[in-house]
Batch of 4 targets.
Target 1
Amino acid sequence: MDLKRANLEAYLKGIYGRDLTLTSTRKMGETIATTEDVKGFGYGSPLLVEYEAKGKKGSAVISSMRVQRGFGHDHFSDRARIMIWQNSAFNHLPKHVRSLDVGYFTEKGKLVSAGNAREYFLLMEKIEGKEYFFDLERVKDDGATDLDYDRVIALSDYLAEIHAAKGDCPPLYLRKIRETVGDGECIFGILDDYPDNPSFLEANELQEIEKICVEWRWLLRGKAHRLCQVHGDFHPWNIMFRDGADFSVLDRSRGEWGEAADDITALAMNYIFYSVQKSLRLTGDLKDLFELFFENYLEKTGDEELLEVIAPFFAFRAVVVASPTWYPLLSDDVRRAIFNFLERVLASKKFNYRDVNSYLA
């Protein structure tokens, strides 16, 4: 990108005062300074800026990160995370170069300071609706209506539609698998929060589950052709229904591109979860809704391979709903049934969505 002198000077004035004058810039390692715009500023070429403010000369170095795929730097939010952390952490280590500020570039090339930030927030539009988990609670207690079946069709149609957008970037697919297994918000991170000796698990059971999940990571390495647009956290608390089957979704998470099985399991696990709380099995209308969800999605997409890659994503969603932290009121037999499901799905080469109870037993 090109860095305009006027934008750089305006930014520095905001940091050091309005009387600042930018005197020169040059890429680190170069000997010839310039007072003009900087062409091709980016990673690998930190920029030395020299200025005068309040009658004194000063200097600083501006550095940014390369826009690239892989190494956890795929999204601009990844690069922002690193820069924000560095601004916070550099100054706490003796002898480390000090960070003076952290900022960002706008689409028009302006530089904006974010150095005073402590926590970030999001300002969103307001939507009307009621979370889908209320529907599942009602179905568990009172049974389903025709509207419940219509809504399952609408949800599976929606996923079929967004998953039809395919990506061609193997590093992003590998990242999705890696993060599903090892990220702090996913399997390993959730299990880190479990108590040391859960009453519903055998000794070393969690350790064995983690080993199997790593094996699945390697089994899925060759599936990058499956990369598609995803929601990333498509569970019933992130789905808001209005009248009929009209809905909106909330809180898209963990990347724009990933594996379709992530969205499928985020919702499907909850049909199992609500039914297991009542009978330790997937039964009745919740069973019908679960199977309809899969049948309609597979009919619309033809993606039978989904059933061969789904296991670690079910494992992720299962350790969430069985979590003593997130669901403290569950009985041990409910948690045990969920772990039976998790382990038997991980042990299967292909998931049979019509025989869930064989995994729960």
Target 2
Amino acid sequence: MNVRDATYSDIDMVCDLLADAFYDDVLIKSAFPVPERRKDALRSFFRIYGEIALKKGGIIIDENNSGALMYLHYDSENITDEIILKQFQDEYSPDYAVMAFLMHKLSAYHPKTPHYYIFVLAIPGQEYGMDVIGALLRRLHVLQDKAGIPCYAECTAMRVQKLASRLGYQHAGFPLCIEGFPELYPILRNPQ
């Protein structure tokens, strides 16, 4: 399966794909509890991160536009929590307050050294899910290994954490418990 780096012209498609994929996600429901506003709020939320990712990381999509992986390159000069919070303030909507709080809390658990952060990986529908996930992650792993830095993410389900272990990820500590949200399961892949 072929994958490619998304460009700014792909941002609407990527945001639609992510909004569809995460509409019923337990974490997203906690942050965006009003069903009637959730899809539009998600599109806007993912656009904020998508624009940051295109400048400070990347978005990888598969050849059929059926899956997307959005990642950020965290280091003290490229991207920090403050950069993201500033973007939230510039684009502020009441829907983002809860997510801004969550993202701020999660950043405390990130590796303290430069790393890639998988912000989101989504495959709406599961017909070819593992093939797409594998292709997207392999592309990121090539970049990660070349950069020689770890790759970090949080999973919303323990089953996803177990699945990630088959792709070279290790448990990165205890489940993360942030008040008002379901547990998250951190994973880490060291460069090969």
Target 3
Amino acid sequence: MLKWARENGCPWNEWTCRGAAESGHLEILKWARENGCPWDESTCCCAAESGHFEMLKWAHENGCPWDERTCSCASEHGHLEILKWARENGCPWNSDTIIAAEGNGQIEILKWARDNGCPSYE
């Protein structure tokens, strides 16, 4: 469908990659990037938020930018393994990671984040 839309002049932007990441459509994301679709930090954030670990790995390994939202989105939605991997691979974090864990009852993530030096909002 995306290929047809592009062939028929449909515009795309960063939201195209974001949508593929959020929905877990790795092949669509790959095709979009191969064909020049732009992406931004929201691609990694949406992959982390939705628990699409392989999507996040592929995006990061292929140069997709990320920011603190990747960690806070993983934290908010209970994806500890994604959070750990993101941090091991240099993803920045801030107090939003703690706030997201607290606000959503993610006790295991909260404990891990505090034990691993996540900045606090206090």
Target 4
Amino acid sequence: MAALVVTGLSSPRGIPFVGRETVWSIGIYSGPTLFDLQPLANCTNPVLTAEDIDDVSARYVADPFLLRHGDGWVMFFEVFNREKWRGEIGFATSRDGCSWRYGGMVLQEPFHLSYPHVLLVDGEYFMIPESGADKCVRLYRARDFPRQWEYVSTLLAGEAFRDSSVFHRDGIWWMFTSIEKSELRLYYADRLTGPWRPHPRNPLIANDAGVARGGGRVTTQNGQLFRLAQDDHLSYGRQVRAFAITELSKVNYREIPVSHSPVVVAGNAAWNNLGMHQVDCQPLTNSTYIAAVDGLTSYFRVGLKY
């Protein structure tokens, strides 16, 4: 969730009516590797903003995840609903990865949702959005992709799990998840539906907001697994760093920082000049990747909710 910074004038009752608000929007990058991403050629970023959302009053859009579907792309992302003051999940479609059309809200709960990690497993589409506000990790299945989703089960419960990333490796399902911004944990299971078991090395990272919280899907390039983490050390969502996973088993875990990191960082454009905290990288061709990213900026707004 983006931070809200209020400055300027206020009413006699103390309710601000002029202030500066930070907002996220979504862009598209591409490159030959995860570490050579640049804005997609002939594409004007951001490709999706809160202004594209026509079925709720949106404050921002963030946390994009991509899937190839048919001859085009589907993107799922957080839509922060200004009236409900919490995140919900929306989707958009594109033929070329550059021009996107908003399709509507697909998942709404009585608690905050974000980080809609989507994956295709044995011909079925699943989603694991962040539901830390409900102190759990929930699994959903597409009943009618991409518009309709149904709750399947709770994978983890009891804590405010943040930005969970699930992947399959060597016949085992693995899940990275964070407790707030500074603690990273690992879980594993024989099936996506669980039961999920805590890794004996937990917490993998403790008290380090610069490397613990998820910054996108676990990515594989040339057989090497990379964990992505948002760097929240100096400020929330400043950049995304990459870590090469060098050992992954039910008893051990090791990773090393990648020298080409950060993968994305706050840029010079107006839409991402304050930070970037999400990368979802997918193959575009045999030699090119496409990535959905998000960027943070701020602007003055009249009549902020206090």
